[in-house]
């Protein structure tokens, strides 16, 4: 048991998928895993362990934002010994070439969060980076499956409603999309020397003001979930 995860030792797999939304965690477990056990209900941040193509995989909801994913990813790595963490999220497209329904693999993450500066102090800009092996596997599977996907730098923001940040300048520097958790996940995976990757479906495009309908969101999330699960077991 840890402070926010009420699971007995040994009940969480080595590889954990991390959706922000607890209902997405439930959907993923019920529709993609067999032999499912719900190991966590604390704060309704549901956590499940089940089997995907013969291998044990867990799914843990992280909530929204870096403070929240930092709690769950720290406890998973420190208290449950989790080795691989794959965020399965949504993101808002920024770059022109990114379209609704595409998948973004976060090679690196830029952030306005104070977590980085508070970890290393002023003068050091640590670069939160995705695990190369997971990234390579995910990109290969996405290519083989003929998915429309992008690999690159994402923005992990502290605020969903953020008038203060110049996203346009970041887009000029190649940032593909925005979300709210990957930098903290990569920072903590580096701290604990574990593997982490962010896989996100583009549910909105912030520049073009485009948004997926609830139905489309569901369909396109399925492709990302399959990709994350195949990456997890490969
Ligand atoms: O769909 P999830 O995984 O929650 O991710 C995105 O959606 C939330 C904002 O609506 C933030 O958590 C953002 O990162
Ligand atoms: O953080 C996010 C996630 C999805 N869509 C957005 O616009 N922002």
Structure description:
There is one protein chain. Helices cover 35% and strands 28% of the residues. With 234 residues, the chain is an alpha/beta fold. It has one domain (15-233): Rossmann fold. A hairpin with a 4-residue loop joins β9 and β10. The longest helix is centred in the last third of the chain and has 20 residues, at 214-233. The protein binds 1-O-phosphono-alpha-D-ribofuranose (R1P) and uracil. Uracil is lined by residues 90-92, 160, 178-180, 203-204, 206. The active site is at residue 204.
Topology:
Blueprint: E1 15-18, H1 22-32, E2 34-40, E3 47-52, E4 55-60, H2 66-80, E5 84-93, E6 103-111, H3 115-120, H4 132-144, E7 149-156, H5 167-172, E8 177-179, H6 182-192, E9 195-205, E10 210-211, H7 214-233
Parallel strand pairs: 1-4, 1-5, 5-9, 6-7, 7-8
Antiparallel strand pairs: 2-3, 3-4, 5-8, 6-9, 9-10
Helix pairs in contact: 2-6, 4-7
